[in-house]
Write a structure and sequence with these properties.
The protein is an all-alpha fold. The protein is built from nine helices and no strands. The chain is about 70% helix and about 0% strand. α2 runs antiparallel to α3 and α6 crosses α7. The longest helix has 25 residues. The radius of gyration is 27 Å and the shape is elongated. The N and C termini lie far apart (about 90 Å).
Length: about 200
């Protein structure tokens, strides 16, 4: 009973924080709401005894991606008025997508299709059970090809981002390392002698 109450409390916090992400007027507040969403989701993973996924969600998304995203939001000059115009322009589309997703979830819960244990209760795992070991075994045995393919796609995306950033285009200021190394002190600093002036 306590676990169920805890689950519904966390679910309510998660829904409220997700709504705060899209309704917050300040972009920094939206990022903080998103961090709260990730932390709440990680606690839900802990309730399912998936501690590895919970730790990865906090370390990778909250600790790295969200910090980088927060710095980008703070450094960029975000036009809040323009963002609000875009939100009101596509609000109807977001409402339609949300309604379709809610209808799909309600249909799954209502019909209870075979193969989905909707009403099954989770049994506690033994003390020597390791979610990390089980996940690693599944990734490197049954899903090794998909895992390697995902790693290759991520590497390809990194290389493509670097190529798009370093491409030659008008107005791009490129770094010339050879000129920087060959610079002399006389080219940078010039000593000027001036006569002292006295106030009368």
């Amino acid at each position: 009973m306590a676990g169920t109450l805890f689950f519904y409390t966390l679910s309510a916090v998660l829904i409220a924080s997700a709504l705060g992400v899209i309704t917050a007027r300040n972009p920094v507040h939206a990022v903080l709401f998103l961090v709260l969403s990730f932390v709440t989701s990680s606690v839900l993973w802990l309730l399912l005894e998936a501690e590895f996924l919970a730790v990865v969600l906090v370390l990778v998304y909250v600790g790295a991606v969200m910090v980088l995203f927060l710095f980008v939001v703070m450094m960029l000059d975000v036009n809040v008025a323009q963002l609000r115009e875009g939100f009101t322009r596509y609000a109807w589309l977001g409402a339609v997508v949300a309604a379709v997703l809610a209808a799909e979830l309600l249909a799954i819960v209502w019909w209870k299709p075979d193969g989905l244990p909707m009403a099954a209760t989770t049994t506690p795992r033994p003390a020597d059970y390791s979610n990390t070991e089980m996940l690693g075994t599944a990734l490197y045995t049954e899903h090794l090809f998909a895992f390697e393919l995902a790693a290759f796609l991520l590497l390809l995306a990194i290389v493509a981002a670097i190529v798009l950033t370093m491409r030659r285009r008008p107005g791009l200021k490129a770094q010339d390392v050879s000129r920087q190394v060959a610079v002399r002190r006389e080219d940078r600093v010039r000593l000027v002698q001036m006569k002292a002036e006295h106030d009368t």
